[in-house]
Amino acid sequence: MTYSCQLFSLISILIFSPIALALPHSYALWAADSAIKRGQGNGLDSNGKPSVSYEHGELQWGLRQLYEKTGNKKYYEYIVSAANNIVSNSGTVLGSYVISDYSLDPVRTGPTFLYLYSETKQAKWKVAADTFRAQLNAQPRTAEGQFWHKLRYFNQGMSAHFRRHIFYAQYTKHFQPTNNTAWADIASQFTLMYKNTLQAPGSANYTGLLYHGYDHSHTATWASSDRGHSPEIWDRALGWFFMALVDVLEIFPKTHGDYASIQNILLDLAPKVRDAADPQTGVWWLVMTQPGRARNYFESSGTAMFVYSLLRGVRLGYIPDADGSIVQAAKKAYKYMLANWVITNSDGTMNWTNTVEVGSLSGDGTFEYYVGVPLILNDLKGLAAFLLASLEYENL
Ligand SMILES: *[C@@H]1O[C@H](CO)[C@@H](O)[C@H](O)[C@H]1NC(C)=O
Ligand SMILES: *[C@@H]1O[C@H](CO)[C@@H](O)[C@H](O)[C@H]1NC(C)=O
Ligand SMILES: *[C@@H]1O[C@H](CO)[C@@H](O)[C@H](O)[C@H]1NC(C)=O
User: Ligand 2, closest atom to CA 290?
Assistant: First the structure.
């Protein structure tokens, strides 16, 4: 039998065996179709009012990649209708968005506006993107130049908001490619956060990863007196930062002197993220600084974010993986996710479990705080990250 014949029979077995039929063709498609069927990420809140939500922006980031991969217009159309719900015909950003909050959260929908502008050349998307860009120009900063997360979080930077810098980089690439002040500023957002929140060698339960937040004034209840960082490493905050590192390198000019400073952060963190996984299950703890402690648990959104970033970082050549250990770690975690966090519903959709609702530094940022936050079924922050992780896994 020739090789191709053998391959053909193998495929036939896979296609026609009942077990294979029960499995979805693609977990990325299944996650997207399930979210769409539930109306998730459609630019509206539960009362049907416009909602400029970073979670929606994250889903759209995945749907765009799915559309580019499959050519299925339904994903593109879902993005368009969601974005139309939050931007008026003249380009006003709707919902509760006001520039004077200086919150970086809504800015995560900016890449969708830039994408639709490049696809349609409709002026409204450029007007909406310009609104976010104007916000960044006036965004309050620490004395070192680091963006505050929002006006009411005086002097504070959170690693969770780093996905928003993707917009800053894309906007610069589209409209101001030679604005070196902007490129240097984007890079310095990453290097400042890294410097200010990196766990010091010799710390108890050393991971060498990044604490959740930083307060330049060192006055927040959670800020360490010596460096101003929060007490714990929270998986999803690091997950957002880690995804942003990989995605920003795709946009940032390789010839710019600061490209290496961003890549070096990724090179430092990638093996540490790999090594922080629980050795048995291969996935990551909610509070990464307290592995195995009672009430701590394996959290699904952070895990999906690490899988996406590790696989994508290796695939695009940003993270070397000579011994294959990084991809191996990501695959192990991915299989755990499928076996433990994906539920098949009788209507053919999937549910996604074990994503923590929120992690905020409006309180004291202690271990007790993080483990006390509820888990949310089908939380879009986790489900969108699972979609992205699945896209990368299915690219292997
Ligand atoms: C370049 O970027 C900087 C920093 O974001 C900004 O202040 C400035 O307005 C930009 N320059 C132009 C010509 O748009
Ligand atoms: C180190 O980890 C252990 C096990 O999770 C935990 O009980 C302990 O509180 C941690 N120590 C610090 C200083 O975080
Ligand atoms: C799946 O999620 C929906 C809510 O989106 C819920 O009503 C349903 O009970 C869940 N199914 C299972 C098996 O958990």
Answer: 5
DSSP 16: H
Per-residue confidence at 6, pLDDT binned at 50, 70, 90? very low
Where residue 161 falls among pLDDT bands split at 50, 70, 90?
confident
What's the rounded Cα separation, in Å, for the pair 245 and 243?
5
Domain range enclosing 385: 24-395
Q: What is the SS3 assignment for 217? A: coil
Q: How far is ligand 1, taken at its centre, from the CA of residue 189, in Å? A: 15
- Residue 12, in any domain of the structure: no
The per-residue pLDDT for range 103-113, each reduced to its tens digit, is 999 999 999 99
pLDDT at 361 over 70: yes
- Give how many domains the chain has, as a whole number: 1
Give 290 Cα–ligand 2 centroid separation in angstroms.
5
Which ligand 1 atom is the nearest neighbour of the CA of 136? 5
Q: Max alpha carbon distance in the chain (Å)?
A: 73
Residue whose CA lies nearest to ligand 1 atom number 3? 182
CATH of the domain at 209: 1.50.10.10
The verdict on residue 15 lying in a domain is no
